[in-house]
Amino acid sequence: MLNIETFDNVRGGNVVYKALSHPLAARALTRLAETVGPVALFDPDGIAGPLLALCPAFEVEGLYVQDTQAIGQIRTGHVARALLALPQARVRKVLLAAFDAGRRAQHLQTLLPPGAELVTLDAVKLPEDWLSVSRRYLEPRNFATNFVFFRDDERFATRLTTANYWAGYGAKEVLFQHILFDQGGQVLAEWAQKSPTGPGGYVVDSREVRARFGLKPFTGQLFIHAIGVAGHDVVKYALDTYATDNGASLSCTHDANAWPAARFAGLPAPRADERVILWVQNSHGVPIPAGDLALDRMGADAPVALEEEIPPFATRALDVAELFPDLRWPAQLEVRAGRHVVRPRYEVVREGRTRIAHVNVERADLRPDPEIKALHPSMGRGYLLPFPVLPRGRFRTFALPTPMVEAERDMPLRLDVFTPQGEKIAEKFLGRLPRNHECAVDLDDLLPDGALLEGGHAELVYDFRDGGEADGWLHALFRFEDRANGHAAESSFGAHIFNTLMVYKNEPQSYTGKPPGLSTRLFLKLGFGGRESFCVLIYPASAPWEEHSSTDLELYDANGVLLETSRIRIACSGSKLMRPDQHFAPAALRAAGEAGYVLIRDVTCRLFGFHGLEDEAGGFSLDHMFGF
Question: How far apart are CA 82 and CA 42, in angstroms?
Fold first, then answer.
């Protein structure tokens, strides 16, 4: 397990981690460690752990602290010494483990060993022109970064789509810096590119990158850093993987979630005719040691380790069958990632088609919450996990609940199904599913023939009729299959309380302020290369709310110019399958271009959505949408 703290759901992201793990910082730390030789390490803020975890090349003579309670404790393999002992250190260099260290450095001068020189972490700061807020280095907006699974070979290409949503928070000019790593972790290319000054669309396509830099086929990861941002310190994006060999593969995923975690869950075992490949992508400038990454049959607590080192920033295609040759769907696996990777992608290969999806962060900080069983009546049905039921004339829809909390032992669940008009037409009590369950619900088994031929949606909810526990972090994997050609897509997400005026803890969730989150701002990319985009918008309601939504569809071009607006209405507890070409004029869509997008805006209720693409060959993709 890598000794780092990344993200906490109460305090948010750890900026020190971002500052130390940034690829440019990783290079600078390595150079510093090679030049300073043995150092006495003064650790006033308790960051020696992540510092040495992310750069073990430092040769540390001793660890020095100011906190008297820390004296004598073993930290990062060293017995902490009192700072008063620093003058006796036999070193030529003292490393002050702090950024913006000017005043502290002045105070430390009188304590340096004879002839010793003081160095600080200011030596590994990012260049000034990489910062959004220069006056304070450890400012979250200075590290608006993310990783992207990026591939371009003779079969597949990848395409990142996002928007300059920071313009809506007052950002004047946003610059994207990119670092592309190959499968071995070596840098293939580095470049900068401006985003539109307004809230325009932004696209990075692997085919264009490969042509621009004259690259050979590659599979690796793209590191992206947004500079000049405001209001938001996360780079969100949609990622399409599409066939370049006239094949039938097409898939999309949501952003990679910029924070490494100890565990991830929601990795499906393969069917008998499938391969499931987990793309392990090292997010740091240090190797993943052999044995530090493992897979476990969910609920077994018998992890099987990958006994192979993965180099810094490298990518390893791990076929699940390497470690679990006999495990089959609907069994699922847990990724014991040791905080080495951000949310990984996985690839399912079946009958010449491939689809990409992602696992989710498994939380270690949650415990069963007995209050969920007795929520106030104003919270109605409480936590809901909505997902589309695609038109049943063409598609099959499956739901596989996925444990997403380390302490979770069972999941008492019910499945409710709704028409697009908000009428509940079916329900099924799933029971108290154990952690190692294999319950994948086929909606065909629940619905009569002829029901939801035009689609609808379903919701997983807690149901305590047989007891059980709940933690509020209910997740599931949703799989959609074309009945005729076998093409499939899958997505996963978690539950929230939706559209109630009263609140419980941080629910209903709001991304731009305190709950309740009774508004919607969702991003829908447009199609490209003959592929057309669509989305399924769901109006989930834990308790009765507005009878219909008042949802505006705003069409923007690549420069952020609003071209057209269309309004739709969605019934409470209903849904709508929406295609841009049904709501905007062809001329407006042409003017928007492939980097344009639709902003789905509603100030009356919180909608939830899934977006995707369709192609002429019958391929399609689907994943949950992101908002900003």
Answer: 10
Confidence of residue 257 (pLDDT cuts 50, 70, 90): confident
Q: Which residues contact 208 (CB under 8 A, 6 or more apart)?
A: none
DSSP string, 426-493: EEEEEEEEETT----EEGGGTS-TTTTTT-EEEEEEE--TT-----S--EEEEEEEETTT--EEEEEE
pLDDT digit string, tens, across residues 122-159: 999 999 999 999 999 999 999 999 999 999 999 999 99
pTM: 0.95
Secondary structure (DSSP) of 115-137: T-EEEEGGGGPPPGGG-S-TT-T
- Strands 332-336, 304-305: parallel, antiparallel or unpaired by DSSP? unpaired
Do the strands 144-152 and 187-194 form a parallel or antiparallel pair, or are they unpaired? unpaired
Question: Strand pairing partners for 226?
Answer: 144, 176
Q: Which residue has the higher pLDDT, 8 or 517?
A: 517
At 10, the pLDDT band (50, 70, 90 cuts) reads: low
Q: What is the DSSP letter of 373?
A: G
Question: What percentage of residues in the chain have a pLDDT greater than 70?
Answer: 99
Q: How far apart are CA 412 and CA 303, in angstroms?
A: 26
Give the angle subtended at the CA of 461 by the CAs of 456 and 466, to the nearest 5°.
Answer: 135
Q: Please say whether the beta carbons of 623 and 252 come within 8 A.
A: yes
Taking the CB of residue 71, how many other CB atoms lie within 10 A of it? Answer: 16
Band the pLDDT of 621: cuts 50, 70, 90. very high
CA 151 to chain centre: 18
CA of residue 283 relative to chain centroid, distance: 13
> Which are the contacts of 256, defined by CB distance < 8 A and separation ≥ 6?
146, 147, 148, 149, 342, 343, 345, 358
Distance CA 502, CA 512 (A): 18
